[in-house]
Design brief:
This protein is mostly beta strands. It is 0% helix and 54% strand.
Length: 113
């Protein structure tokens, strides 16, 4: 993979769409697309107030940095400036009462439970 610079200020937020998954109020800005896996493994997500993502498994783990707002990953409450590492095989749902923006690194597609 070659060097890439993504100007996030010039990207529009797009609704997150996943077949069979309720993603109302969740928006994405892909930062790095991986041709080998045909997906973006590094991206920004924005949750509107009250948005949620269902319980899911992380086969290859996950890294999250909260840029704005607050969010719950299962029982864990995170606020702007918090970092979360989810190890491979761990599960959680995600919910933001007030809305948030987060940076994600997800090496492998999640599995909805």
């Amino acid at each position: 993979m070659s060097k890439q610079i993504t100007n996030t200020a010039k990207l529009e937020w797009s609704p997150l769409t996943e077949a069979g998954v309720k993603t109302d109020g969740i928006y994405v800005k892909p930062l790095r697309y991986d041709d080998a896996t045909q997906r973006s493994s590094t991206f920004l997500l924005k949750f509107e107030a009250g948005a949620s993502y269902p319980n899911h498994n992380h086969p290859a783990g996950e890294e999250v940095y909260v840029l704005e707002g607050d969010v719950r990953f299962g029982p864990d409450h995170l606020v702007a400036g918090d970092y979360l590492y989810t190890p491979p095989g761990a599960t959680h749902s995600v919910f933001s009462r007030t809305g948030c923006v987060m940076l994600f690194v997800v090496p492998q597609e999640v599995e909805i439970l």
